Amino acid sequence: MKPQKSISISLRKAILFFAFVLLNFSFAFAQEKKDIEIRFQNERVAVEKGSTFTNFLIIENKSSEEITIQNIMPSENYPGLLFYPKNDFILGAGQSKNLPIKLIANVDFMKLISNEIKFQVSYTTSSVNKTDNASFFVDKEENKNIAIYTTAYENFINPSAPDSSILLTVENQGYSKRTVKIDLQSIPDGLEMMPKQQTVSLEGLEKQTVEIKIVVRKQNTLFPEFNINATATDLLNNEIVGSNTLHLVILSNNRQIARGNEAVNGSNYAELSYNENSSGFNFLQLRGNAAFRVAENLKSRINLGADYYHEDGLYNLYDTWLELERKNTVLRLGNVNSNDYDYPVFGRGGKVSTKFGNNNQVEILALENNYNLASTYFQQTEGSTMVGAKYGFGNSKSFNGKVSYLFDHDPRLNVDTQVTNAVSSFSINDKHTIRTEAGLSHEKGLSNKDENVGATMGANYDGKIGTWDIQSLNTFATSSYAGIKRGSFFSNQRIGRQFSASQRAFIQYQNSQVDPEFLSFQNAPIQTGNANLRYYFNSTESLGAGYQFSSKKWNFLLSPKVERQKTANFYTSQELFSYRMEANISTTLGSHGLNWSAEYSYSKDENKADWFNSLKTTLSYRYKSFSLNGTAQWNAITVFDLNSYYNVDRNFANYNVFASYNFQMLGNNLIGSFSAGTFYSELYKNLNTNVSGNLEYKISPSWSSTGYFNISGYKSTAEYASSGSYYQFRIGIRKYFAAATALGNHKVTFQLFEDKNFNGLLESGELVLANEIVKLDNFVAMTDKNGKVVFQNVPEGIYTLKVNENAGARLMMDPVIMVDKNINRKVGLVKNIKVSGKLTEIKQAYDVLETDVTGIVVYAKGEDGVIHTAVVNQKNEFEFFLKDGKYDLYIENDKYNYTQPNQTIQVTKEGFSGTVVFEYKKKDTTIKVKKF
Fold this sequence. Notes:
Layout: H1 2-35, E1 36-40, E2 44-48, E3 52-61, E4 67-74, E5 81-83, E6 89-91, E7 96-104, H2 107-110, E8 116-124, E9 129-141, E10 146-150, E11 156-157, E12 164-172, E13 178-187, E14 191-194, E15 197-202, E16 207-216, E17 226-234, E18 239-250, E19 269-277, E20 283-295, E21 298-309, E22 314-318, E23 321-326, E24 329-338, E25 345-356, E26 360-368, E27 372-375, E28 385-394, E29 399-410, E30 415-428, E31 432-445, E32 451-465, E33 468-477, E34 488-500, E35 503-514, E36 536-551, E37 554-569, E38 573-589, E39 592-605, E40 611-623, E41 626-634, E42 653-665, E43 670-681, E44 686-700, E45 703-716, E46 723-736, E47 745-754, E48 773-776, E49 779-782, E50 788-795, E51 797-803, E52 809-811, E53 816-819, E54 823-831, E55 833-841, E56 857-862, E57 867-871, E58 877-882, E59 885-891, E60 897-898, E61 902-907, E62 915-921
Parallel strand pairs: 2-9, 11-18, 47-54, 55-62
Antiparallel strand pairs: 1-3, 3-7, 4-6, 4-8, 5-7, 8-9, 10-12, 12-16, 13-15, 13-17, 14-16, 17-18, 19-20, 19-46, 20-21, 21-22, 21-23, 22-27, 23-24, 24-25, 25-26, 26-28, 28-29, 29-30, 30-31, 31-32, 32-33, 33-34, 34-35, 35-36, 36-37, 37-38, 38-39, 39-40, 40-41, 41-42, 42-43, 43-44, 44-45, 45-46, ...
């Protein structure tokens, strides 16, 4: 027991000793921190590109002895650092200094990874040498949008191809590194896009090219045109930071030339137009969209698309619907479409969806698969009857998913189809995303009583481990699966590594194929041994690598690849094996943009013994709103180029040139675009040309006139050649409506005026302030000619009102505003008086040594004791914005001798017309002139 007691006593003594030592260290640290305080005047500074800004480093000596400031140094070599104090100085007991740190927010500064600006200050006392840190943060005013656009003008899809592809350019228009998720949606459904979702990491101002494989799963007689909605979501805060709609044309040998239905684009407008075309199908068209409140808690939206063929007295009503929203429930009647069913869902009927809980949603729909709501122009046939339901759950960040079911009765094909599909996705540490998918389907022929049961499954992984990016996309569907992925297999494995901010490499393996199976035609009995005329098979397998790097403003990509393509149907089959090399070079030089891409292939057709060379290259040039694109192709690039309607050899050439111009003029009252292009194909022996244009002229703030024209020509160069032309034009009048405020949001209106008598009331003789910049938090607007500004759809919350800070104006009200209802308020402004000044050097004769007073601080102390500061610029000038009163202006900088370092001025409401001049001389400089 004694040894234990001894150990216990020793342990207690040791604990007391360490506690005493720690207490002394803490006390010493607290004393030292209290005696010498080093900090920046502003903890955060808002900056925008190209602007200069100053923050003051404040050093306070609260000790009883003087200290010597030996060195002030930035923690790193910050780009854009213009000025900081470099001379040592002594700071007496009880004294403090405000030292200016001046920077310019150039491009390199805006691209800094960290927003913290840190300085080290070394000083000595009689007993210690020490170095302390002080820092502040910058809030960068930057364009945080992600631009998404296609690198080529033409986006064509071969419906029989296994995977036509388009190239998307994803551009970070901001300065910070971004990791974004690209989501793609087909409108209407019917396209399979792989990958449908992709994560891209972008450095500041970086552009990357993303290849999207596209397959047309719905084999119809007439192929519609598709739009792909591309959306970029920032994974840091899950906000949508960019979007674009990409137009695709489906190639077909049975192309419908008569104008098809056009979806209504835009919101809160109505337009009546007259359309004429060379085919003679002239018509009047009414299009519109509006949102309005029916009651306090009920919001409505209506969409209208109608054509009237006045010569025949026929009409067509399409893309027309009414939507009612109450709290978390939305009801839509009329033309309906929906997605995430793994089945094409569009037609006329009804859909209701409601949200409950935190992130749960249920949707139920019933519709007939007919795009026209009502029509005498198009023959109305009985379409499929669809009933479906969908349940969505989870949150957008860590875990989410959906389960859907759809029943389709098709009286035309006499087939009943059921498809159920489930998808779930979850994230781990915001660096790893796993997505799984499973589905079942059942098809039954109502005449021949044959049935098919199918299934699909998929598993995707997207993650980042250090500098490595790993992506694995995998889906499989049985040949008899009735969903969009019928008979498909897709595997895409990609590993990438980022070596630096400007260098990355990747390796990628891809294998995709389509081999579908269908029920028998129900209009005839099943006969064994008959050939399957509907058979087709397509596949692509490739292994590739790539290296991407940038140098200054130039971006480069090199990517070798080995690829095998196959295609087969009842009549023929083709196979192409290729060694490929892809290259891309792009740059932006001011307003000029240049992009060049090329793909060289060394290929072999399995039906021929020899190998052949081929090349496809595209050059794009952009200057402001003008773009010029050219594409050339020599010999077959894909397996589908081996099929030709004409018996030609492999040596052929295709050319395309396209130009477009977007413009705004007459004070932005006239906006429009023109485009023109020509395409020559030696393979298919034809020449196509097209010229089109859009115009809109604003007659008043809510009325405008519109116009559109399209002229195209076709000429065949084959035997028994033919040619033709087509034109269409449209003229109309458009009315814009004010946007309705969404449920739960509010309308905030301000009217700004100059409050000359300081009473906060707009009275006779006081002017309203037009073209004034107004900020409600970070939302910026500008007053109209009546001094009014309106913020629509403002959510409930607390906001700060800021007005014309640069001009020194001040509000006559509390800038903090609680928004819990609609607000209409008059805001009085008192414009502070501008006081200008400059520093002038008094030089001795023969003195040619230049001085630099940039960054010197001038102080103005008012009668109320408030001290204002101004910094001398590169022109040796400074300026204050002060209210009326008496001020003492002074300079504390001791680098020069000032003849009058303290001056007193009187500022009145009428203004201050003089210029404050501080004259100074160099210290310890005497020029002696010797006379001979």
